[in-house]
Amino acid sequence: GKADGEAREEKEQEDDPEDVVREVAKFKAKESWDMILTAITSARNFKWLRQRLTGTRSHAALMNKITEFVLKDGPIDVEKLRKALHRQVERARFRLKGADAMLELLSKDYLIPSVRYQVLCGWQGLQFSTKRISDPLPHCLDSASLIPPNDRVSLEIAFGRLNEWSITTLRDAVLHADHNYKMSAQGAGPGAETFSLGILPQARFLLATLGMLTMPHQATGVSQLLNSGALALTQTIMRLAGPDSQQASEDPSCNNVAAVFEESRSKPQPPPVPISGPELAALMKPGVRVVRGVDWKWGDQDGPPPGEGRVIGDLGEDGWIRVQWDTGSTNSYRMGKEGKYDLKLAEPPPLQEKEEEEETDIVPDSKNAKDDSTHPTSLIRRACSSLLRTLTICMGVHAEIVQREAVRTVCELLRVLVESGAIGEQSAQSNSGTIACLQHRDWATLGFIRSVATSSTVCHALSTPQWIDLLLRIVGEQPLNTALTRQVLCLRLLHSVLPSWELGQQGQQMDSIINQLFSLLGSVLMQCNADPVLQAIDTCKKKKCPRPKVALTCSHSSTVAEELVSLLRTLHGIDSWNRLINDYISSNLSVIADIVSDKPKPLQMSDTEGQVTISQTAAVLAVLAVIGSVDSRVRLGGLVRHDEWGVGTVSGIRQNGKIVVQFHDLQAAKLCKLLNLCRVTEVYFSVDKLPMTDSILNTWGSLVSLATAGFKPDREGGRQARTGAADKAREDVINRTLLRRQQVRLGLLKASGVLFHQQKNLRRILMLVSTLETAVADTAAEEEGLPKETVTLMQQLMSAATQPSPVKAIFARQELEAAALAVCQHLAAEVSRPSALPPPISNSNNTNNSSPPTTISNVLSTSPKERSKTPPIIPSKQHKQKKSRKSSPPPPVPVVQQLIEMGFPRKNVEFALKSLSESGAPSPAVLPTGGEGCRQSSTSSGDVPGAEALVSWLLEHPDIQVPDLSDEDGGSLSSGEIVSESESEAEELEDLEAYGITDSRSFKKRSDFLSNDDYALYVRDHIQVGMMVRCCRTYEEVHEGDIGRVVKLDRDGLHDLNVQADWQLKGGTYWVRYIHVELLGHSTNPAPGSAVKVGDKVRVKRSVTTPKYKWGSVTHNSIGVVTAFSANGKDVTVDFPEQSHWTGLVSEMELVPSSHPGVTCDGCQMFPINGPRFQCKACDDFDYCENCFKTKKHHRHPFVRITEPGASPVPAGRPGKYHKKGTNLTGTLVDEWSRCVRNLIVSSRENQASRLIDGRGSYWQSSGSQGKHWIRLELQPDIIVHRLRMQVDPADSSYMPSLVVLSGGDLLSNMKEIRQVHVSATDTLVTLLQDVTEYYRFIEISIKQCRSSGIDCKIHGLSVVGRIRAEDEDVAANISFLASDNEEEEEEEEVEDERSNGPRG
User: Fold this and answer.
1) Which of 639, 619, 462 lies closest to 562 in space, CA to CA?
2) Residue 1200 host element (H or E)
3) 514 CB contacts (<8 Å, ≥6 apart)?
4) HSE-up of residue 597 (Cα within 13 Å, Cβ side)
5) Model confidence over 41-73: pLDDT tens digits?
6) Helix axes 404-422, 465-477, angle to 10 degrees
7) What pLDDT, in 10s, does the model give residues 827-874?
8) What is the CA radius of gyration of the chain?
9) Which range among 23-37, 86-100, 443-457, 1280-1294 shows the weakest confidence by mean pLDDT?
10) How many CA atoms lie within 13 A of 1151 on its CB side?
């Protein structure tokens, strides 16, 4: 070979050189192509090898982890890793064999259906379709994701063929079922009337096939199923199965009010105090205050009434306990010994609030309640829903890889279901519409759709114009009372999908959506339509008219508005949406000044130049709400924070004050108290992304200036415009213009607070010049020829902050904002509900001159001057009401209010202002005081004196006596004015006269003081034991308006429990504070069951040998004056000349007739007058005795009653007044309740009192201590009880009364016992009174005992039959309210008759 090579070389050297060159070039070209081919082959091999080892690009992260694992320091068990990878490959191989075997079995046609069905069940891990023998089949790549790509593809193809077979089988079954359905609809096949998909032979194969498809799918599997028509097949199956009748009958709308009202959070009531027994003995601890009990037999060891003491020892085993009385004596008493209990508690035990354990209870999820129906049709419905839910979830997870067309198909199906379930829910009459509604309610809910929208592909598919229009229609058109949850979920869905939009691709649609969202927000804020929270009415019996309830949580309108605000704030923080929202905000800022200014333009419905439209006002409200928010209270769907469980979302609001919160960290829902939750703001407004150019800063400065300046009256032409607006407001009942103005101003204040949070903006805005006109400064500058002084915005804010506020500084800012928002929303709801407005009150006698009703619009639409000029409502003669009380003075001017807060009396300040305002200071005897005249005079003058000048003038005239006149002319009052004033006073004292209170007008009220401390000091200095007081503020068991007698005082401290009184409505004693009572004076009423009253002269009866509390220095001949009665009404305190504060029993005393020496009756010439003396207030010397005052009626002046010489006169009205109504019906029986009974009062549970007379078979159940239950009837003035019956039920057991005591009297504190009624165990209708001959104004039905010593009682009804009495005149003489409603007109007619025809008879 070597020789051959050498020979070849020699030959080549001998060849031609050109051939040699050609051969070399050919060899080089061949070598280069071989290198390229080798490189390409090597690259392919490398790529294939890398793909074989690492997979596709999606596994780059896995490759990085493998690299980190290889490079990791430390021991690595490579063998264990190799075995794990090998197990995955083996697992994939077994699954591939199983899929191939399954396909081979399913392809055999000779298998009978039962065997084929068992094969399908075995593949799914089921045995006989009921018992599961293994877990459901996982996804083919589950726990096998690291196998080689080739094996992966083979496995996915095998399982894809299984899915293909399932779809084909499912389609054949559906076609067969649809054919049977059509045949049954035509009535051609057997059993056509009872067609059901569940009874078909293919029903079990449908279930098995649906079960095979209901499994997790990867992107390829989802695309395969969606493109093969799985959605259409499931919808067809749902249509053939038909709607579920049970689900279709359920009302999906939630009509419950999602709010907590203030009235629902009632305080827990104290438990009833046991009268006797071991429970009472267990409460006897050392230091407890006690009084004598039911088994007391130890005489007067406890001292004079009320006879209290305290326990000084523990209860012994022998049943005796040691007590030290307030008199200093000590003794032992029985508390269980011999079964007797000598003591009871002097006061109720302290109330211990039970800790509500509901706060820690986990709320079960209502959706976990599964349908237990095993009917095949029901199972098919649930299988279809599960398959649709699974495909939707897999589509959302793999949306970026799944085909876009498949994603759009699923989203379009969801849109159709939501539209059918939400919009078409009311009108869904067809079978397909009902099925769509049920699917929306079952699986295609808005919350489920929002959970799927996690990728940009799904968000774009869910934000098509059709989807956006649907969601906005649900929010804008659905009523708030039924679709609140749905509206919140719609806005949450928009919150998820809209941020994925890009400005360049969808710019026009984004601009349109911004306008729609702002318009929707403005509409919700302006209308508040169909909001059940704002329509809730509190129908409390204590209120003369119903009033709206106060919500402690957000209303439905505020909830929707807050969701819109959160959505817009989120979009404002995204760059693609920021510019559009900023442009919208800037374009609507200029309109705010026209709305908030002192001279607003009227709101118009159309866009006219120079006028503010309704749409512009709505846009302004929306802009301000986005910047400053709407409501800061807890709301449905909002975030809250709990001190223990962290942050959660409010998923439900219950009316009992509990909030259902889904806490994020706990993954559970719990019930929480409203007080334990704190609102968390979801999204804050980004001030940094709001452009602050010079023009926008100037606009904000002017707006802040307007918002903080308040409303000032017009000085030139505003009066006519305001009068026109007032006339229009009278027609519409509520002044809409002023309401919108207040809404915008409230939003402007909130928005300004948000802008001021940024220091840079705050400094720039505060240095701007205020745009308001300072009238006084400008006028002075023009008169003196000086330039106008410029005021910065900061100076204006400082000036406004130092002005006296009409609201006391006891409320937090959040409380004031919530109150202002509630008022605006309630008025807006009334404006949007015109059909519910009350009709105007018109005069029946004069139809031409009608006056508007006294409504909110009168306060909103007119200024104080216009309100003073508005003519009052003159009721007709047939419907004449009571005379109104003296009108309250107008509010003082700011400088007067400032000095009143310093402690100066108002009339002195106004007199000083009047004196300094006029050129020459007049004398104090000439100038009047009062409201409007002084105000007009002061404002008309050129120079308005300041606070310093007024203070100096008041300090220089400390002893000035300001006359109390009501007009500038002064002068004395005429007799007619005296008559009117006395009638008004008599009506004001009507209720107090029932308690015998005569000197109540000498005490000040709570409203006369500026602070609680001043009022408490006043009460402490003037209150006395035995005085009558009225509760002016509800405190625990004592309600507002209850009247009681002071029993004991504790003058230590100013705001402790200082006053113990015996309250009438409560039926016992209770401690309250000074600030809770108003002083009424001493009562002159007699003690119950006696004619003795405070102020009477009494002496000890001759029949009494020794009084109960001994004689002391008193004898039978001693005459004293009654000063007070004890709380039980049995003991009386008398001041004798021989001994003061002498105590005795009322039954031991007798009256000493009073006499008025030197006074003659001008009617019957009685001299001297014995008994009460009635003196004319207008005449100098004119007196009547009691008999003449009742019978003589020709003297028309008012009288006063003087019981004793030197006693204080009491207004008594005019003489000879009697009730004429019904005098021609003497003796007629009346069975109508309202004709017989004027008023019905119960001792407890006033809300159940109507059950006694409504005849509906219900009952009134008392609540309180044993023997303290009563029912009081106030009878009509001309009715005597003919028969009074009470209905009971023997089935009530211990609640059935056994002893009833009837009492009657003309005064509440002068009730005497009429009779006692014992109720047997079998009685159902008990006659309490029969053929009563005496008239009683008040009748009290007192339940003293119940069966089996029961505590509370049940009364099932009351019935009364009255008889019109014959002699009305004698009774009506001393009762002013029994006068006829048309008494003045009747007396004028009588006077005219006397003048024309002469005196009668």
Assistant:
1) 639
2) strand 1199-1202
3) 571, 577, 580, 581, 584
4) 15
5) 666 666 665 565 555 555 667 777 777 777 777
6) 20
7) 888 887 654 444 433 333 333 333 333 332 333 333 333 433 333 333
8) 46
9) 23-37
10) 15
CA dist., res. 220 & res. 395, Å (int) = 10
What Å distances lie between residue 1101 and 1135, 1148, 1151, CA to CA?
16, 6, 9
All residues at 6 or more sequence positions from 766 whose CB lies less than 8 Å from its CB, including other chains: 792, 793, 794, 797
DSSP 642: E
Residue 1222 has pLDDT above 60, yes or no: no
CA distance 1176 to 1162: 11
Give 799's Cβ-side CA count (13 Å radius).
Answer: 14
CB 1352 within 8 A of CB 1346: yes
- Of 1215, 1201, 1218, which Cα lies nearest the Cα of 979? 1215
Identify the residue whose tokens are 């869905």: 493
Q: What is the secondary structure of 69-114 as a DSSP string?
A: HHH--S---HHHHHHHHHHHHHHHHHHHHHHHHHHHHHT-TTS-HH
For the chain, the straight-line distance linking the first and the last C-alpha, in angstroms and rounded, comes to: 178
Q: SS3 of 278, please?
A: helix
Q: What is the largest CA-CA distance in the chain?
A: 184
Residue 1227: is it exposed, middle or buried by C-beta count within 10 angstroms (0-12/13-18/19+)?
A: exposed
Please check the confidence at residue 178 and state whether its pLDDT lies above 70.
yes
1061: pLDDT strictly greater than 70? yes
Q: Which two tokens stand for residue 914?
A: 């009047």
Position 722 scores a pLDDT of 41
| Nearest Cα residue to 299 out of 267, 268, 333 | 333
Please name which of 1022, 1132, 1120 lies closest in space to residue 1078, comparing C-alpha atoms. Answer: 1022
Whether residue 1354 contacts residue 1244, with contact meaning beta carbons closer than 8 Å, is answered with no
What does DSSP say about strands 603-604 and 612-613: parallel, antiparallel, or unpaired?
A: parallel
Burial 462-493 (b: 16+ CB within 10 A, else e): bbbeebbebbbebbeebebbbbbbbbbbbbbb
Alpha carbons within 13 A on the beta-carbon side of 965? 19
Asked if 236 and 205 touch (Cβ cutoff 8 Å), the reply is no
Q: Which of 548, 622, 556, 559 is nearest to 585 (CA)?
A: 622
Quick one: pLDDT at residue 132?
A: 58
DSSP type of residue 1083: B
Q: With 60 as the cut, is the pLDDT of residue 718 above it?
A: no
Residue 102 neighbours by CB under 8 Å, 6+ apart: 119, 123, 162
Backbone angles phi, psi at 1051, to 5 degrees: -85, 10
Per-residue confidence band for 1376, with pLDDT thresholds at 50, 70 and 90: very low
Residue at token pair 């081979």: 104
Write the pLDDT tens digit of every residue in 963-1000.
Answer: 544 433 333 333 343 344 444 444 455 556 555 565 54
List the beta bridge partners of residue 1060. Answer: 1048, 1071
Q: What is the pLDDT of residues 1011-1044, one digit of tens each?
A: 888 888 888 888 888 788 889 888 888 888 888 8
pLDDT score of 678: 92
**Which residues have CB under 8 Å from 870's CB, separation 6+?**
851, 852, 858, 862
> What global pTM score does this model have?
0.56
* 675: Cβ contacts below 8 Å, ≥ 6 apart: none
The secondary structure of the chain in percent helix, strand, coil, rounded to multiples of 5, reads 45, 15, 40
CB of 1072 within 8 A of CB of 1048? no
The amino acid occupying position 306 is P
Neighbours of 960 (CB within 10 A): 14
Long-range pairs for 79-87: beta carbons < 8 A, 24 or more residues apart: 85/146
Q: Going edge to edge, which strands form the sheet with 1173-1176?
A: 1183-1184, 1173-1176, 1199-1202, 1210-1213
SS3 516: helix
Q: Which residue in the block uniquely carries the two structure tokens 């559906």?
A: 174
Asked if 599 contacts 582 with a C-beta cutoff of 8 angstroms, the reply is no
Q: What is the pLDDT of residue 514?
A: 92
On the question of pLDDT at 1207 being above 80, the answer is: no
